[in-house]
Automatic annotation (TrEMBL):
It comes from Acidianus manzaensis. GO terms for biological process: galactose catabolic process via D-galactonate; non-phosphorylated glucose catabolic process; protein tetramerization. Catalyzes the NAD(P)(+)-dependent oxidation of D-glucose to D-gluconate via gluconolactone. Can utilize both NAD(+) and NADP(+) as electron acceptor. Is involved in the degradation of glucose through a non-phosphorylative variant of the Entner-Doudoroff pathway. This is Glucose 1-dehydrogenase. Keywords: Carbohydrate metabolism, Metal-binding, NAD, NADP, Nucleotide-binding, Oxidoreductase, Zinc. HAMAP family: Glucose_DH. It comes from the Archaea. The gene is gdh. The lineage of its organism: Archaea, Thermoproteota, Thermoprotei, Sulfolobales, Sulfolobaceae.
């Protein structure tokens, strides 16, 4: 079968035929791949920038975002069902992993499909177990590939809400979050998905970037009635305070020094993704401010099966709530038969990209 292969930590990617016995499979349900999503992690592996990406053989099948159709069913999954695999699998040792929550693995020995220690889903078909599969309704097949990255954001927002249960009156006087404000740093794909989730649950959303929004981002901002701030002249000019601040830039960590003063009392600074440079200095004054104002800094990573299911629900709802936005979320589909274009989109982010998918 055809598969997209990498050899981490070496740079490079190739499309080759492999034998079934050469790749890993994980259960009795046979799934034929329909789509793979491409994200920044895939590109970092392809370009040799992630040193923790490893394989237990001389190659790794790339790909942690996939939708497939069941060809050989088992249990609650029948032939013809559309499914998405959970990409992180547990260590099999700690209690959290045994309870299906490897996002809180205590040993650090979890594996991630197409990233570290486990073959991914950029191949013609794979076999999997029902506990690692989520059904995708045919009605959202066109945007369903977003359920994987959106699951990570669902989990992140859940963590923030759970953290804020420490505050007796964090909801508003009408029981909603309509009086709360969130600032999202970065208007790329992750920032857009964060904005959609926070708007859906009622927050006033502010999005910032050091440039003006492109046409796709502007459509999302307008349809969701969010706010945009161009931070090129300095974050201090935003003249707002926020209950939640999310770093979705994946850029220089020094931006956190500039936005930390914008956090309200009892607020949460959420860190999503990995900065590629810079530093964030928490001096004694900032520590005093954190203590006196009950502020929290929290790392956000990896959704699991409940979050995938919630992502499916939100994607379905956005088709009604934000119909223009829904049509723009998949910015391009590249057929696997066009190997040159597949290699190209795996190497470089494309202009105005939200999500690019490979069609098999």
């Amino acid at each position: 079968m055809k598969a997209i292969l990498v050899r981490p930590p070496k740079e490079g990617v190739e499309i080759k035929d492999v034998k079934q016995e050469e790749v890993q499979n994980f259960g009795k349900i046979k799934i034929r791949t329909l789509y793979n999503g491409i994200c920044g992690t895939d590109r970092e592996i392809v370009n040799g920038k992630i040193t923790f990406s490893l394989s237990n053989k001389n190659f790794l099948v790339l790909g942690h975002e996939a939708i497939g159709v069941v060809e050989e069913g088992y249990g609650n999954f029948k032939e013809g069902d559309l499914v998405m695999p959970i990409n992180r699998r547990g260590c099999g040792k700690c209690l959290n992993c045994l309870l299906g929550r490897p996002d809180f693995c205590e040993t650090g020995e979890f594996v991630e499909a197409g990233i570290n220690g486990m073959d991914g889903f950029m191949r013609e078909y794979w076999f999997d177990d029902s506990r690692y599969l989520v059904k995708i309704p045919k009605q959202i097949e066109d945007i369903g590939i977003l359920a994987q990255p959106l699951a990570d954001i669902e989990k992140s927002v859940e963590e923030i809400i759970n953290t804020q249960k420490r505050v007796p009156s964090w909801t508003c006087d009408d029981g909603t979050y309509n009086c709360r404000k969130v600032l999202i740093l970065g208007s790329g794909p992750v920032g857009m998905l964060f904005s959609l989730i926070f708007r859906t649950i009622g927050f006033e959303v502010w999005i910032s970037n050091r440039r003006e929004p492109n046409e796709i981002e502007q459509t999302v901002i307008e349809e969701t009635e969010s706010n945009f701030f161009n931070s090129s002249s300095g974050m201090e000019k935003i003249n707002q305070k926020f209950d939640v601040i999310i770093d979705a830039t994946g850029a220089d960590a020094s931006i956190l020094d500039k936005v930390f003063p914008l956090l309200k009392r009892n607020g949460v600074l959420g860190l999503f993704g990995f900065p590629i440079s810079g530093s964030f200095g928490v001096d004694f004054r900032s520590i005093q401010e954190m203590v006196l104002s009950n502020k929290v800094i929290i790392g956000l990573v990896n959704g699991q099966k409940p979050h995938y299911q919630q992502a499916v629900t939100h994607l379905a709802s956005w088709k009604t709530l934000y119909p223009k936005t829904s049509t723009l979320l998949i910015t391009r589909t590249v057929p696997i038969t066009d190997e040159n274009q597949v290699i190209n989109v795996l190497r470089e982010k494309q202009e105005k990209e939200i999500k690019i998918r490979i069609a098999w």
